[in-house]
Design a protein that fits this description.
CATH topology: Severin
Number of domains: 1
GO cellular component, one term: actin cortical patch
Structural class: alpha/beta
Shape: globular
Distance between the termini: 32 Å
Largest sheet: 6 strands, mixed
CATH class: Alpha Beta
GO biological process, one term: actin filament debranching
Family: Belongs to the actin-binding proteins ADF family. GMF subfamily.
Protein name: DEBR0S1_02586g1_1
Order of helices and strands: EHEEHEEEEHEH
Number of strands: 8
Strand content: 25-35%
Number of helices: 4
Helix content: 25-40%
Radius of gyration: 15 Å
InterPro entries: ADF-H, ADF-H/Gelsolin-like_dom_sf, GMF
Amino acid sequence: MSSLYTFSPDTKQKIRKFRLSGSRAKQISAEIYKIDPTSYELQYEDPDDIIDSLETLADELPDNSPRFVLMNYPYKSSDGRLVSPLVFLYYMPPTARQELKMLYAGCVEQMKDEVAPNEFIEVADEDDFDDLDDQIRSK
């Protein structure tokens, strides 16, 4: 089955490395990906700051454009074990243009297949980040 969206070998390698780094994660880490609207290629977006908290991640996301976010989210479980799920955030701000919403909606399943996350969560704005910790820990 062919797809409209493409992942360059570099992007696939970056995703694979990030997945593998999660088992050793001691703090939150995240990578942001965008879709080039002309080539339909998924691309890593270099952040301005190191993303090591939910606040930093929320600050890095654009106000008017969707993004895909991969996040290693280490925490201690209720029984004291250190767990670090790979979380796939589908960021879809309500102020995004309809064309962009459709572009990202068309790729979300392919991205899930490529990433194989432990958890998938949709977020729409910064307020959704307030409940994100509880959502991740409750799964």
